[in-house]
Amino acid sequence: MSKAYTTEEQVAVAAVRRASRLTASVFNKLVKNETLTKGDKSPVTVGDFAAQAVISTILKHAFPDDPIVGEEDASDLRAESGKEMKDRIVALANEALTEELGLGDNENWGIGPGQEKTDAEILDAIDRGNYEGGSSGRMWTIDPIDGTKGFLRGEQYAVCVSLIADAQVKVGVIGCPNLPIDPAHPEQGTGVIFKAVRGQGAQQLTLSGANPTPLQIPPCTPATLAFLESVEAAHSKLSFNERVAELLGITRPPVRMDSQAKYGCLVRGEGGAYLRMPTGVGYREKIWDHAPGQILVEEAGGIVTDSRGEPLNFGLGRTLGENYGVIAAGKDVHHLVLGAVQKALAEETRAKV
Ligand SMILES: Nc1ncnc2c1ncn2[C@@H]1O[C@H](COP(=O)(O)O)[C@@H](OP(=O)(O)O)[C@H]1O
Ligand SMILES: [Mg+2]
Question: Which residue of 232, 238, 260 sits with most ligand 1 atoms within 8 Å of its CB, as the best mutation to test the pocket?
């Protein structure tokens, strides 16, 4: 019997590779040349839209009936005022879709030489990401540039795709163009793809699709643990992480990094636990920010829960619902981190009364 989700995995990897190459070229062509101190986010916007167009086009050709939950929508680009940006996006998306890459590509997926799309097709592809999500059936998630702040700083960001069926993540692919292939060997360069299929394990590849390496979270204790956490204090309550570290006797400083590259580093053993607690502004976590990471960690032998110890619920719509935070870690430390998180939460509650 053939393995489940083989085509889905191949399509998701092909889509993430092309979109990752596109984002790296947007950075080199646009971000480096534009004055970001003015707060001009247009390069990232162009990159986001074009990368979502590429992934969504590929998914539509391969799986025409599957709905998509994507971060972006094209309404601004359809207005006359969005024309210049739209033209840039269509050009970038077509460049990425038609590039000759070989390695697992397939003309039935709408990619390769001669596969240019019209403006309307590119805009429609972006808008296919408007699905509202839900607890039954298949759906894909796309986060074309996760960690936009990291992308603009030239640091970590990730191109993320997942397949969810009946609220369970089945396939997850995370492309990290700026992540070292092997931190112990910087001369090998950067550009990593993490992938996982339910029941079939997790692997790392290079962005060019080479050197598939199985991933298993290595053993860890509080003595060797460092928290992986956001760079942005607005995304995660970093002072809370400090208290949890204190309760666990953790002495290593946290590793701060943008995007779902944190999940990738966790499964490679660079850290030990990813802790993301809400900052209290009522923000709801988006499913595309955690679905690929969740399956990656679980398939590498780890556990992902919220601060109640409950699994993340991908069946509630575009968000994970009420925000109880995210704790991802190897089996040997997850319960310790969860216990310390609950203790720190109880302290906060006592301090309030
Ligand atoms: N107040 C908030 N709390 C938690 N996450 C938030 C947030 N505001 C934005 N985010 C999410 O945090 C993601 C980045 O996470 P990280 O800090 O781990 O890099 C953003 O993804 P995008 O960059 O794709 O928009 C965005 O979805
Ligand atoms: Mg994101």
Answer: 232
In a domain, 93, yes or no: yes
Query: pLDDT tens digit string along 101-124?
Result: 876 677 788 898 889 999 999 999
Q: Does the interface ipTM go beyond 0.95?
A: yes
- Please indicate, yes or no, if residue 1 is contained in any of the structural domains: no
What is the reported pTM? 0.96
- Count of residues making up the chain: 353
Question: How many domains does the chain fold into?
Answer: 2
Burial annotation 37-63 (CB, 10 A radius, 16+ → b, else e): eeeeeebbbbbbbbbbbbbbbbbbbbb
Cα 209 to averaged position of ligand 2 atoms, centre (Å): 23
CB 307 within 8 A of CB 340: no
26-73 pLDDT, tens digit per residue, is 998 877 766 444 456 677 789 999 999 999 999 999 999 999 999 989
The residues, ordered by sequence, that sit 6+ positions from 91 with a Cβ below 8 Å of its Cβ are none
